[in-house]
Design brief:
Length: 96
């Protein structure tokens, strides 16, 4: 368990470091392609080494919106956000 947590922390640190460096030198539209390449490499790694728990955990996080609970939470968050904006707009309209 300690090894898995350490791997995740190291991967997160590498992600933020690489993101900072790439955003400094590369335009955002090219980073979209880079993100797609990283996802493809993650899938290839999952097929090459299916027993790696880190890949399984990352895939579980990435596929969370495709699960029923994830989809419900995303849609609920969207509804709450949209409702909050409408309530706020009504309050601002009444004060004017």
């Amino acid at each position: 368990m300690f090894e898995l947590i350490t791997q995740i922390i190291i991967l997160a640190a590498i992600y933020f470091l690489v993101r900072f460096v790439l955003l400094s030198f590369i335009e955002r539209k090219y980073l979209t392609w880079l993100g797609g390449i990283v996802l493809v490499l993650l899938m290839v790694l999952a097929f090459l080494e299916p027993t790696n728990r880190t890949v399984g955990l990352l895939w579980g996080i990435l596929s969370f919106p495709l699960r029923p609970l994830g989809l419900v939470l995303i849609l609920l968050g969207y509804a709450v956000r949209k409702g909050y904006k409408q309530v706020r707009a009504r309050k601002l309209w009444r004060h004017c």
